Amino acid sequence: MFYREAGDFKVSYADDSQTFPIKFDRYRYYVVLAVAFGIIPFLINDYWANAILLPFLIYSIAAIGLNILVGYCGQVSLGTGGFMAVGAYACYKLMTAFPEVSMFIHVLLAGGITALVCVLFGLPSLRIKGFYLAVATLAAQFFLVWLFNRVPWFYNYSASGQINAPERDTFGILITGPNAPAWATYLFCLIFLAFCALVARNLTRGTLGRTWMAIRDMDIAAEIIGVNPLKAKMTAFAVSGFFIGISGALFFAVYLGAVEVGEAFGINKSFLVLFMVILGGLGSIFGSFAGAAFLVLLPVVLKVVGVDILGWPTDIVAHFQLVIVGALIIVFLIAEPHGMAQLWRVAKEKLRLWPFPH
Amino acid sequence: MKKTLTTLALGAAMAAGPAMADLVFPDLSYRTGPYAAGGIPFSDGYNDYFTLLNERDGGIGGVKAKVVECETGYNTEKGVECYESTKGQGALIYQPLSTGITYQLIPKVTADNIPLHTMGYGRTSAANGQVFSHVFNYPANYWNGASGVINYLLEENGGDLNGKKIALVYHNSAYGKEPIRTLEELSKKHGFELVALPVDHPGQEQKSQWLQIRRDRPDYVVMWGWGVMNQVAIQEAANIRFPMENFIGVWWSGAEHDVLPAGDKADGYKAVTFHNVGRDFPVFDDIQKYVVDAGKAAGAGDQVGNVLYNRGMYAAMLAAEAAKTAQEIHGTKDITPAMMRDGMEALVIDEAKMEALGMPNFGPTFSVSCENHGGPGLVGVTQWDAESKTWSLISDFKPSDTEVIGKLVEEDSAAYAAENNIEPNCK
Fold first, then answer.
1. Which of A288, B28, B39, B125 could tie A64 with a disulfide, CB 3.0–4.6 Å?
2. Nearest chain A alpha carbon to B420
């Protein structure tokens, strides 16, 4: 019914290798883009922006970044929180040092700085693998949080050790600070997400992505067929760090506005993003979106259903949320290790064959 | 996927819209996580006082008060979500009971024109109402607390702390770092040595800090802790046999649940406070009669009279009085958040008012003005008696070192004003 592929012929190589080769998928993608860019900005209010859409967009960027490292290149990382902190603090230092420069440039530069830091901490991956690499990145996580707590230069010597985003604009429109309109913050994050997703999707379809996947699947075999592990691993760390840095910068500057490194970028954040990637689907861009949407929306939906509709005590609902997330992770690991992206893939295959499955 | 879930959430959020025309007091509470032990009694006290007003007096000035509870888990992201989801319901005042969330909300409430009351926490320099128009931290703030501790120690030592060594064990967050600047100034002034020992969130692991205390042998230990960190610290102090009477906590480190786990060994532990302790006040008879016995108590109903319950109740009382003041100023029962702000700025708490509320001598008398959002900053000291399991006031409410604090408030608020292009003025 949905996937009517009859008559959809590919007559050129370009047609054949496009991102969404199936016509229905392609149109759906255009519709989602049109709604996201053309309709939501006119309907959005503060609650929707700050409670649901901004965290979804920002976590999606982080999940894409981590997915490149873990899902595509097979390098397990528990340092996401620390790398987001690098992005946030880089953005803060840039914002306060160069107030007249556009926020776009600050966020991109923050991503670039994080990429460098990420490569630095990725160097051990050439020697150590698997769990041991996870422990090395865990060390990065704790070291970075400690560093931003310890060295007052990073938080401009403020008394509380917090960093606060001053009001900054881009093209004359306020992006950060309490007076920034909801649509502007939303569009700002959406542009970065669209850019990151596009870049990630095309990188993973090209040579670079194939070398990453070769390293992931079997690094010795990859070396034998001529993949340079140094280049493959370092590019994965760099691209991943770039995305995670962007998400950290947006998380601090646009979403929260004031951040305390231990609380906002602690080990919990690393696990949260890792759960998004695992639940959503390792090695899938769509999975990053699905995982982020799921873990951002689940608490909100549970709260709305439990507290506002059913009138349960708030603490019961908060505890239920822990139980449900925990149970879901176990269920997914057992029943569908490839995450929601795989569910979607299976559903799509079924729909394409429907109503004649044989 | 994303769209279906968001539409679901949208439908649910619309279905759950509350009835208007009540006075809405959001309660950003935390009954879960490592800080729940402090969050539960505070929230119970806050809720119960408004229930009492509704049951006994029919609300505030005849309009019912409605408390909307939202669980933050002491987490800033959830705090923002709670703020955004409750502000549309006509929220009059926010009291997040978290310094981290306060820092988030200061610019937001100012832009949204809703007052924020951070009683004994938050950003200390908000006492300067010329810069922080919508933030109040009366009747006392962290720097009053820090100075109150030092004043008490000065008193104990005959006015001389020269050459003494004081260790500060603090929660490594904006909250715990807040007093350091004041203590540094005071250490210069009085000639004592300050050793700062950070404890990372959530604070269950403090072996190394207490090992250092054991080695350095400071004369006094001051604690800026919260949640599970407090009881661990008191237990560790007992383990190294640190004399409890030389161990003083801030008001967030001095409740029943902090000292009970250490048992008899916690006997003599001290904490500063800005309000009275115990349940020897007429208002508790009313709470018992109208709220607890009627089965309307918040939570499990077993916290009445605890230190933090009293504080939550005190916070609710100050909010209710500010709402009454606002109703009088503007001559309307149905006040808006902007009117509430005016009410807070014109708030006067005197003996007669406290007496009438059934809380004689419960807290200091003070009046708020645009220049001073911080109140008088009077600090008392309480001590724990492990045998009778009660806190008692051992030093009356005394003024803190306003000379040092005033200068620091001026400095810090000026920095904030410069950062955010605020022209300090009193409109």
1. A288
2. A166
Find the CB nearest A51 among B36, B84, B111.
Answer: B84
Residues of chain A neighbouring B77 (CB-CB closer than 8 A): 55, 256, 264
Inter-chain touch A303–B71, beta carbons under 8 Å: yes
Q: B393 pairs with which residues across the strands?
A: B382
CB pairs under 8 A between A and B: 138
**A164 CA to centre of own chain:** 23
In chain B, the domains with their CATH numbers are 22-140+277-376 (3.40.50.2300), 143-273+379-401 (3.40.50.2300)
Tokens 């993003």: give the residue.
Answer: A273
CB B116 within 8 A of CB B105: yes
User: In angstroms, rounded to a whole number, what is the distance separating the alpha carbons of residues B109 and B115?
Assistant: 6
Ramachandran quadrant class, A338 (left: phi over 0; alpha: psi -120 to 50; beta: rest)? alpha
Q: Give the whole-angstrom CA distance, residue A70 versus residue A236.
A: 9
Report how far Cα A161 is from the mean position of its chain's Cα atoms: 27
Helix axes A267-280, A54-66, angle to 10 degrees: 80
Q: How far apart are CA A114 and CA A118, in angstroms?
A: 6
Cα Rg of chain A, angstroms: 21
pLDDT tens series, chain B, 427 aa? 444 444 444 444 444 444 447 899 999 999 988 899 999 999 999 999 999 999 999 989 889 999 999 999 888 888 988 998 898 888 999 999 998 899 889 988 998 999 999 998 988 888 998 999 999 998 888 999 999 999 999 999 988 888 899 999 999 888 888 889 899 999 999 999 999 999 988 888 899 999 999 999 999 999 999 989 999 999 999 999 999 999 999 999 999 999 999 989 999 999 999 999 988 899 999 999 999 999 888 888 888 889 999 999 999 999 999 999 999 999 998 899 999 999 999 999 999 999 999 998 888 888 898 888 988 888 999 999 989 999 999 988 888 888 888 888 898 888 888 878 888 887 6
Rg (CA), chain B: 21
CB-CB contact of B266 with B237 (8 Å): no
- Cβ–Cβ gap B107/A257 under 8 Å: yes
Residue contact B16–A46, C-beta within 8 A: no
- Contact B31/A318, CB-based, under 8 Å? yes
Whether the CB-CB separation of A162 and B174 falls below 8 Å is answered with yes
- If you ran DSSP here, which 8-state letter would residue B171 be given? E
